[in-house]
Design goal:
heterodimer; A: alpha/beta; Rossmann fold; Alpha-Beta Plaits; 2 domains; four-stranded antiparallel beta sheet; globular; B: alpha/beta; D-Maltodextrin-Binding Protein, domain 2; four-stranded mixed beta sheet; 17 helices
């Protein structure tokens, strides 16, 4: 289990991380969200022991993270961190040995992972000759080849097509089943929505949203109503107090409302129309993120 | 952690030695060194003859001059040990000799002269090279003096005394001063050749360590590496690898020289007469004695300087984010090195300069200037040892403070100018 307790990090006068605390249990996937410059990378670097926190502690299974523990951590950085002149095999052996593995064990593991990602033919290809997507797969394999107890994924799906995104998701779930604690960061909220049970949204280093995804969505009062049908009285719906907006999305309308209690009022306007769909849904993480981050900036 | 250190060291070294750059540079170095050692054969191959013997044919019409001339020439040429001039007596007719005279032959016709005792006619197909001409002129003048003394019935023992060189006792009052005034000549010709490989190896060293760190930073693999090994282990592995690399490269340079000599002497590891004469001149000037005394200290200083240069190059390279930055950091290192190189060569021209003496203690250039000043007698062994101590202190400080700067700089990818990043890293509270 990873425990981040009240960490603070200053760069000169600038507070990059402000009293941040969270826990990631074994086999849990945790989302760390935030706009660019919110303090995500600094938090990751503190967890990895690359940076010393000005205050606070980071514990993995009750022990302070230092170089005796980093062999149990995997890290996929946001930008590609591969030595492009090396071959795939050389690169994986290089990172594997730095994680304290034997060359024989690395070779066994790399064969399994290359097969899993359907790139076993690229074993002796140079990294620079691979496509962006395949480079991303190698970067992922290099982070998980040691079956880490803690895995940090910073934008892991960058450059991947939908098929390979599914493959990588499968790999992440596999690691979750092994009991690996996973911290996940992405700007694509649908991935966070699909993966994470818990999350934190950081703004200027401070957690402005913190908790289980389901609870966060429930607590967020604004809802979306999706309506499909004929002769929808858009103008009348817009006039209802509590309706934020009405937008047309292909063959249906999306009505944003302030809270649950507005939904019956909207329904009252359309109940006599020829409607084929009326669905009240929770706000998406994307909407929650934009709203919450926006509030802070206002 | 020590396994990771040795793995990183081995990896760096293997990467460099297996590179096409290393292969290309070493093929070039082998060819250049072998070519320089065998330059005579190469020149001869292309139609010239650098070491062709000059044959002096002497037609002695005086009957007594040849023996004196031959002895004089033997003495003159053996003193310089050129071994390129052969003096032969001939009785053939002058016309015939002139007609059959070869390009490497010189004909001297010696005739009696009532007024000047003996006269000479010097005949050749083409211009005689300057050195040979000087020998012949000196030989003929000495011959004339000897013949004149014989003809004027001077006592033979007196004649020997007159002909023998003057006994000169050379006394230098300062203990530090070089005994031989030829030392400056040796320093300006031989010393630059000796320190050139050292200069070149430092350039290789800076390029290797800087280039590798820069590559790891620009590809962002540094973050992964540093998350598994400490910055200290990382830097020290690069330092050890680059130092081992230059030692290997230095030994290869020695090997290429041996190959060159073997080719030159056709498999016999003997000293070429030209090299031998240079060695004799070096021994006579006292240069070699000083070099032998200096050798242990010079080797220590050389290894410590490799260490110092690799540390500074590594620390500065940690601040780079691209190749342009890396070129910027190389420039001051190269300028310092170049200043040291020229100071070492020109030190003899500024006898007693306090500034140059002071510079011989300055780390990074002391390895070049200090040995130079010691050989020409401007500083003593104690000064050399002081330079070594200062260098050791500098290395210790670089390890203590430089490593902290390295730790901050290595993960810094800001867009600020490199020197500003460096200044901030020094001031950082994390340091």
């Amino acid at each position: 289990m990873l425990q981040v307790k009240n960490i603070v990090k200053y760069y000169g006068e600038n507070k990059a991380v402000d009293n941040l605390s969270f826990e990631v249990k074994d086999g849990e996937i945790f989302g760390l969200l935030g706009e660019n410059g919110a303090g995500k990378t600094t938090t990751f670097r503190i967890i990895m022991g690359l940076l010393d926190a000005t205050d606070g502690t980071v514990l993995l299974n009750g022990r302070k993270i230092d170089y005796s523990l980093t062999d149990q951590i995997g890290f996929v950085t946001e930008e590609r961190s591969l030595l492009t002149k090396m071959t795939v095999k050389e690169q994986l052996i290089f990172y594997g040995i730095l994680k304290g593995m034997s060359e024989k064990k690395i070779e066994n593991e790399l064969k399994k992972w290359l097969k899993f990602f359907q790139i076993e033919d690229y074993e002796n290809r140079k990294i620079k000759e691979l496509s962006k997507g395949n480079q991303q797969k190698i970067q992922f394999i290099s982070a998980v080849i040691n079956h880490p107890k803690l895995l940090i994924l910073d934008e892991p799906f960058t450059g991947l097509d939908p098929i390979n995104v599914e493959l990588m998701k499968k790999a992440i779930y596999k690691l979750q089943e092994e009991g690996c604690s996973i911290i996940f960061s992405s700007h694509q909220m649908e991935h966070i929505d699909a993966f994470c049970e818990k999350l934190i949204i950081l703004v200027k280093g401070k957690a402005i949203v913190d908790g289980y995804v389901q609870d966060i969505k429930k607590e967020y009062k604004k809802k979306n109503i999706l309506i499909r049908g004929e002769d929808i009285p858009v103008t009348e719906i817009e006039k209802i107090k509590g309706v934020i907006s009405v937008t047309k999305q292909k063959d249906e309308y999306a009505v944003k409302v302030d809270e649950d209690s507005i939904a019956p009022k909207v329904f009252a306007k359309i109940k006599n129309k020829n409607i084929t769909k009326y669905d009240v849904t929770e706000a998406t993480l994307n909407e929650i993120f934009i709203a919450k981050v926006g509030e802070v900036h206002e | 952690m020590s396994n990771k250190f040795w793995y990183l060291t081995k990896q760096s070294l293997r990467k460099k030695i297996k590179s096409k750059w290393f292969l290309g540079v070493n093929i070039m170095l082998l060819l250049v060194i072998v070519a320089l050692i065998n330059i005579n054969s190469i020149i001869s191959f292309f139609g010239g003859d650098f070491s062709q013997e000059t044959k002096i044919l002497v037609k002695d019409n005086t009957e007594i001059s040849f023996t004196v001339f031959k002895e004089t020439m033997k003495e003159l040429t053996s003193e310089e040990d050129t071994g390129k001039i052969k003096v032969v007596k001939t009785t053939k007719k002058e016309d015939k000799l002139q007609k059959n005279l070869k390009d490497n032959e010189v004909l001297i016709v010696l005739d009696d002269d009532a007024e000047n005792f003996v006269t000479a006619k010097l005949i050749s197909n083409e211009k005689i090279d300057n050195t040979t001409y000087q020998y012949i002129s000196q030989g003929l003048n000495t011959t004339k003096t000897s013949i004149a003394l014989v003809k004027t019935n001077t006592d033979p023992s007196l004649l020997a005394k007159i002909s023998s060189p003057m006994n000169t006792e050379r006394v230098v009052l300062s203990e530090d001063k070089s005994v031989d005034e030829n030392m400056e000549l040796v320093m300006s010709s031989l010393f630059p050749t000796l320190i050139l490989p050292f200069f070149m190896l430092i350039i290789f060293l800076v390029q290797m360590i800087g280039g590798e760190i820069c590559e790891e930073k620009t590809t962002r693999s540094m973050e992964i590496i540093i998350s598994n090994v400490s910055p200290k282990i990382h830097l020290l592995s690069k330092v050890v690898a680059s130092n081992l690399f230059v030692i290997i490269q230095g030994l290869l340079l020695v090997l290429y020289s041996v190959i060159g000599i073997l080719i030159s002497t056709k498999g016999q590891l003997s000293i070429n007469p030209n090299v031998d004469s240079l060695l004799s001149a070096t021994v006579d000037s006292g240069f070699l004695d000083k070099m032998i005394t200096l050798l242990p200290a010079a080797l220590i200083m050389m290894l410590l300087s490799f260490l110092a240069y690799s540390l500074i190059a590594g620390i500065l390279a940690a601040m780079t984010t691209n190749m342009e930055d890396f070129n910027q950091i190389q420039t001051p290192i190269m300028l310092v090195l170049l200043a040291g190189y020229y100071l070492a060569i020109m030190a003899g021209m500024f006898d007693g300069s306090i500034l140059i003496r002071f510079l011989s203690y300055v780390p990074f250039i002391s390895c070049l200037v200090s040995p130079s000043l010691y050989i020409i007698g401007q500083i003593s062994m104690i000064d050399v040892i002081i330079s070594i101590i200062i260098l050791i202190i500098t290395i210790a400080l670089m390890i203590k403070y430089g490593l902290k700067v390295y730790k901050v700089g290595i993960l810094n990818y800001s867009n600020e100018k490199i020197w500003s990043r460096f200044a901030k890293a020094i001031k950082s509270k994390d340091v």
